[in-house]
Amino acid sequence: MKHALASAAWRCGLTRRPARDGRAVVLAYHRVTAQRDRRPGMSVHPDTFEQQVGFLASTYRVLPAAQVAEAVSTGRPLPQGAACITFDDGWRDNYTEAWPILQRAGLTAEIYVVTGHVGTDRLLWTYAIPNGLDPHRAGALKRLPSKERAVALGNTAAATKAGERVFLSWDEMAEMLAGGVSFGAHTHTHPILTNEPPDVVDAELAACRRALMHGLGVEPLGFAYPNGDHNQAVRAAVRTAGFRYAWAASGGRCGPTSDPYAIYRLVVHEGAVRAANGRPSLAVFALMLSPLARLLPSL
């Protein structure tokens, strides 16, 4: 059904123009790489990203994240066709692959950084969960507090070594910052905050914020929840830590009625935009951005 709706809506032009509803579509990417990432749902191919960015540049009004968040916080309608591009984690390919594409299109983005991994070859702890593990078992591991999870996973050093630097360095981030890219916080070690006690939540937020202020010399305004998970206590901690807005991982379009500490985003990866033939489809991507996507809850 998704592919049929995407194709029909594209042919009719319904998804080739933005909705006029005073709301925005905020895209959440992770990696842009031609290499196959061993964790599903983490990457798009550079060619796919360039096609998507071209569509956004020609069809939508791509705004800085802070501008979208300010409109949400104040309850003001957003400009027609508003969109925003974000990245989570701070992968090095955001610099080597994504940024040149954004520059050619005249667009910018906001990157949410796991500061404990800056400049390293250490993959996130999620990469220590074996591929093919029973989904219930994998889900149970993700729900454990970080200390208990570390015990359950055992020695993860080998499983989380990439063999080369995979995260942005401070120098790369400074260069991107000077070129118009903004940066926000994504914790220091990427724990799922809803699983952690309050003292760990506060420490993660403080360490990440402090590192970004020291490394880039600017105050991070935005925060992105690891795994998109949040609750009332976590949202309150983020606000208390000094962040002005925060992004969830899913939920659709955002607007004046959105919670500024749980702003909706659409997670984009190669598998989410495939057509029936298995190839990436601009028609499917355009459907994701459209209010028509509400007809397909599983999209």
Any idea what the shape is?
Answer: globular
Q: Which spans of ≥5 residues are poorly predicted at pLDDT below 50?
A: none
Q: What's the CATH class, please? A: Alpha Beta
Helix vs. strand class: alpha/beta
The CATH homologous superfamily is named Glycoside hydrolase/deacetylase
Any overview of this molecule?
By secondary structure, the chain is α/β, with parallel strands linked by helices. It has a single domain, classed as Alpha-Beta Barrel (TIM Barrel), CATH 3.20.20. 36% of the residues lie in helices and 12% in strands. The chain has helices at 2-11, 46-59, 65-74, 93-105, 135-142, 146-153, 170-178, 198-216, 232-240, 282-289, and strands at residues 24-29, 31-32, 43-44, 61-62, 82-89, 110-113, 182-185, 222-224, 245-247, 266-267. The strands form three sheets. Strands 1, 4, 5, 6, 7 and 10 form a six-stranded parallel beta sheet that branches. Strands 2-3 form a two-stranded parallel sheet. Strand 8, helix 9 (232-240) and strand 9 form a beta-alpha-beta unit. Helix 2 (46-59) runs parallel beside helix 4 and helix 8 runs parallel beside helix 9 (232-240). The relative contact order is 0.19.
Question: Brief description of this entry?
Answer:
The protein has 299 residues and is of the alpha/beta class. It contains ten helices and ten strands.
Topology:
Blueprint (H helix, E strand, L loop, with lengths): L1 H10 L12 E6 L1 E2 L10 E2 L1 H14 L1 E2 L2 H10 L7 E8 L3 H13 L4 E4 L21 H8 L3 H8 L16 H9 L3 E4 L12 H19 L5 E3 L7 H9 L4 E3 L18 E2 L14 H8 L10
Parallel strand pairs: 1-5, 1-10, 2-3, 4-5, 5-6, 6-7, 8-9
